Amino acid sequence: MLIGVGLGPGDPELLTLKAVEALKNSYKVYVPGRMAAELVAPYAEAEILDFPMLTDYDVLNAVWKKNADKLAEESKNNLVVFGLIGDPNFFSTFTHLKRVMNKFYPDVEMATIPGISSITSFAAQTGAEVDSSFEVSDGSQSKYKIRLKATKPHEIMESFEKEGFNKFTFAERLFSPNQVIIEGKENIPEKGNYFSIIFAEKEE
Euclidean distance between the first and final Cα of the chain, in Å? Predict the structure, then answer.
C-alpha cells in the first residue's frame, strides 16, 4: 500500500498523530526534498526522490514513470509512505504521482493522510479570519469547486452544472464513525446536513 502523508507547513510539532504513526509503521519512506526528509527523520529514514521543477513534459513524464516504477514494486506487499510538505491532495507532488500510479499500476492500493496546508497555515500566521466564501488559485484554469454546508445537494449540483461542472462527490461527517462518501449525481441524496460537502469537477 502506498500512502501520501501530509507533513504540514514545516513545524515538526504540526505533524498529526496519524502521520507519525504511518511513518513509524512504514516499510520505506520517500520524500521529494530535504525539508520533508528532516521532518520525517525523528520517525523514519527517508529516501529523497528527484522531482525536477521543469516545463518539459517529456522529461517530467519520464521522471514520474521512473519514480512510480520504484514505488509500485515496493508498495505491492508493503506499507510505503510518500511524505510531503503541506497536504497530499492540494497542489502537491503526490497528486501527480498518484495519477501515474493509477495509469500504470492500478492494482496498487493508495490512500492519503491529510496535513496542515499552506492555506490554513497562512490564516494562522497572519491572523486572517475567513468566515465566508473565498477563492484559492495558482493561476491555472479553475477545474474544481467545493461547497460546504451542502444541505440541499441537488440544488447545488444543478447550479454547478450551469457552470460546466459534470462530476460530483458528496461527503458527510468525514473521519467520524458516521462518515459518508457517495460518488455520482444519481446516487447523492436530496438532503445533507451542516457537515455535508459537495465536490464538483469539470471532467472532459
Answer: 29
Q: List 146's β-bridge partners, or say none.
A: 199
**List of residues 6+ apart from 137 with CB closer than 8 A:** none
Residue whose C-alpha cell is 440541499: 152
Residue pLDDT, tens place only, 142-199: 999 999 999 999 999 999 999 999 999 999 999 999 999 999 999 999 999 999 999 9
DSSP string, 86-131: B-TTSS-HHHHHHHHHHHH-TTS-EEEE----HHHHHHHHHT----
Tally the C-alpha atoms within 13 A of residue 134's C-alpha that lie toward its C-beta: 9
Phi/psi for 116 (5° steps) reads -65, 120
Q: Answer yes or no: are the C-beta atoms of 204 and 143 closer than 8 Å.
A: no
Reported residue count of the chain is: 204
- Could you report the per-residue pLDDT of 4-51, keeping only the tens digit for each? 999 999 999 999 999 999 999 999 999 999 999 999 999 999 999 988
Distance, C-alpha 133 to centroid of its chain: 21
Q: Among all chains, which residue has been given the C-alpha cell 525523528?
A: 42
Give the other-Cβ count within 10 Å of 70's Cβ: 15
The verdict on pTM exceeding 0.70 is yes
